[in-house]
Amino acid sequence: MKEYNGKVRVVFKNMVVHPQVMNAHLAGCAAGRQKKFAQFKAAWWEKGFKARKMDDASIEEIAKGVGLDMARFKTDKDSDYCKNLIQGDMAELQKFKVNSTPTFFVNGTHVGGALPKESFKQMIDEKLKTAESADYYDKVIMATGDKQFRSKKDPKK
Amino acid sequence: MKSIASLLFAAALFAGCQNESKLDGSGGGNLEARVKKLEETNAKYAEALDFLQKVYGQQKQQQQAQEDSEPAPDAMFAVDVKPSVEANLVEGPATGAQVTIVEAWDFA
Questions:
Q1: pLDDT tens across A125-140, in order?
Q2: DSSP B87
Q3: Which of A66, A70, A121, B90 could form a cystine bridge with A39, CB 3.0-4.6 A?
Q4: pTM for this prediction
C-alpha cells in the first residue's frame, strides 16, 4: 500500500459470516468514527482473534489499547448508525453474490479469495495503467460498471 | 472373367439369404425369448441406471450453479463504497486514489 504513494486505497465492507464476531464489526465501525479502524483491525487480529478473546470485555480492552475515546466508542458501537452501516454493506455485497471472505474487487474486477502478494501487485499495476484519473472509481466504475452480479453466462448489456 | 464375377455375386447373394436374423440367431430361442431376456437385463440394471441418472442430474445441476456463480470475465462491478468511505473504513487515501480495492471483510 505504502509503495503506491496514495494511488491505491482499500475500502472495507462488512460481511458478517460468523455471527459471533458481530460485536467486533460494530466495534470496528465505532473505531472508524474516531478514524482508528486500521489500528483497531490490526489489534483485533493479534489480541482478539488469534488469542481467541472475542467477548465484549476483550473488545473494549482492544479499543482502549488503540487509544479510543471509550465513552464515544460505546455510544457509537451501540448506535443505529453502525448497525445500519453493517446491514447496508451486506445488502450491497449481496447484490454481487458475495458470500465468503475475503472477496475483493480491484477497480471493479472480482477476485474471489486471497491472492499471493505478487499476483495482487501485478493486478494493481495493470489497473494503474488504465485508470487515468484520481476519481476513476466514481467517474468510470460507478458510472458505467455493473450494478449487480453478472455471470459468465450473461452477456454484457 | 465376367462369368466368375457373376458367379461370386450370386454366391454372396445366396449366402446372405441363408443368414438368420440376429434376433433369432445364436442367442438362443425365438424373438419373444430374446425380448424377454432383454427386459430381464433391463430390469436387473434399472436400479443402477436410475442411480446413474440421479448422479448425472446432480452433477449437471452443480455445474449449472457453478457457471451461474462465476463472474463474467469482462464484468466491472460497481460496488458502492461511499458509506464505507464516510465511515472511515479505508486504508490509504479516502479520495484521490486511482485504484480502489473493495474488500468484503469479516472479523473472523
A1: 999 999 988 889 999 9
A2: T
A3: A66
A4: 0.77
